[in-house]
Design brief:
Distance between the termini: 40 Å
Shape: globular
CATH superfamily of the largest domain: Fructose-1,6-Bisphosphatase, subunit A, domain 1
Order of helices and strands: HEEHEEHEEEEEEHEHEHEEH
Radius of gyration: 17 Å
CATH topology of the largest domain: Fructose-1,6-Bisphosphatase, Chain A, domain 1
CATH class of the largest domain: Alpha Beta
Helix content: 25-40%
Oligomer: single chain
Strand order of the largest sheet: 3-4-5-6-7-8-9
Strand content: 25-35%
Structural class: alpha+beta
């Protein structure tokens, strides 16, 4: 598939993300129906409805490409040459509480000759600030059509670092260790509650680094590509669990000091 074809897929993903973004804005302050709750997370009826809306839009334009999603997946996604990876509402707990820090994340992944998948298109849309981050593999990363770059910060003491706390005990303990180590060493720590937006913020120079263990593929598929196309670094090794990854993202300058510190 050529880069010009990827542009068509990018436009399709943007349309789908904006469509669900309007739904999120409409329902931000309304009471939400909760389908499932756990100790550190919840699932909304609107999560499912939003993914189905995205899936329908993608299928109308590219019916041959299956979807791997947080809420529902096509069983053929692991064998297909291309697949969509969808997080319909990243930051669900924020959104459920009326906090306007959540987004739509859509990526198109290509299966490599080795059988792994890599993102070739990435879209993250924050409907509450009308900010749209996009990237195509080999091209620049953009916010609302303008090129973005990570920050020039090269010292932890000058950095703004975001942490995420996933659900598992291992992830929570890892993030607590990061919190304890980094708090006296960085300018500020922030815990915002959306992995996709955190990665977009590193790409855009708002955060200098973002760390979280135990994220899922749909949390990071679009953000990883956007960050890398912007010139940053996304270290995302797999961990125990299906589609699970540990994430250490930074602006490309903090890597050595982060490695020594952690």
């Amino acid at each position: 598939m050529s880069s010009s074809s990827w542009q068509k897929h990018l436009l399709t993903a943007v349309e789908a993300a904006r469509e669900v973004g309007e739904l999120m804005k409409l329902h931000r302050l309304r009471r939400k129906q909760v389908n499932q709750t756990t100790a550190h997370d919840l699932k909304l009826e609107l999560d499912v409805r939003s993914q189905r809306k995205i899936t329908r839009h993608l299928a109308r334009n590219h019916p041959e490409i299956p979807v791997l999603g947080e809420e529902e997946s096509d069983p053929t996604h692991s064998e297909a040459p291309f697949r969509w990876v969808v997080d319909p509402i990243d930051g669900t707990v924020n959104f459920a509480s009326g906090i306007p820090h959540a987004c739509v994340s859509i990526a198109l992944e290509k299966q490599t000759d080795a059988g792994a998948f890599e993102s070739v298109v990435g879209v993250i849309y924050d409907p509450f600030n009308d900010e749209l981050w996009t990237a195509r593999k080999g091209g620049p990363a953009l916010r609302n059509g303008r090129r973005i770059h990570p920050s020039p910060v090269a010292e932890l003491s000058q950095s703004m670092v975001s942490l995420g706390f996933a659900q598992s005990d291992v992830s929570l303990n890892t993030s607590l260790r990061y919190f304890t180590i980094l708090t006296p060493k960085v300018r500020k720590l922030r815990i915002m509650g959306s992995a996709a937006l955190a990665m977009a913020y590193v790409a855009d120079g708002r955060f200098d680094a973002y760390l979280e263990a135990g994220l899922r593929r749909w949390d990071i598929a679009a953000g990883r590509l956007i960050l890398e196309c912007a010139g940053g670094v996304a270290d995302c090794p797999p961990v125990a669990g299906e589609h699970a990854f540990a994430v250490k993202c930074h602006n490309g300058r903090l890597g050595p000091e982060l490695a020594r510190t952690l």
